[in-house]
Amino acid sequence: MKVTIRYYGYLQIMAGANEDVIDETGAGNRLDTLADLIEAVVRRRPSLKDVCVVGPEIDRNMLVLRNHERVPGRLLNQVTVADGDAVDLVPPLGGGGAA
């Protein structure tokens, strides 16, 4: 099973890449849930270990989207991944305000 991870904003800089393809057939890369996938990302890109924290804390650092649908950090252990899925890691957006 292969899953594409796409990085956006400062996460691209931290990762040193725009995207990765995580392959379950690689050693230690069993991908059942998004939590497993995030752990595989950190193994591949150790520079992300401080922001890719599995659990609700991840919501402070990024939005996690599986196939364009947001997944809250508290659900990372429950949402499964499938072959061909695309997961986007997007920094939180800020700014705006009343005009």
What are the defining features of this structure?
99 residues, alpha+beta, Ubiquitin-like (UB roll), 3 helices, 5 strands
What is the spatial order of strands in the main beta sheet? 2-1-5-3-4
CATH C-level: Alpha Beta
**What is the residue-averaged pLDDT?**
87
How far do the termini sit from each other?
A: 48 Å
With helices defined by DSSP (H or I, 4 residues minimum), what is the helix count?
A: 3
Q: Could you tell me the strand content as a percent range?
A: 15-25%
Shape: globular
Biggest sheet: strands, sense, closure? Answer: 5 strands, mixed
Counting DSSP E segments of at least 2 residues, the number of strands comes to 5
CATH architecture: Roll
- Indicate the CATH topology: Ubiquitin-like (UB roll)
Helix and strand sequence: EHEHHEEE
Radius of gyration of CA atoms, rounded to a whole number: 13 Å
Structural class: alpha+beta
Fraction of residues in helices? Answer: 10-25%
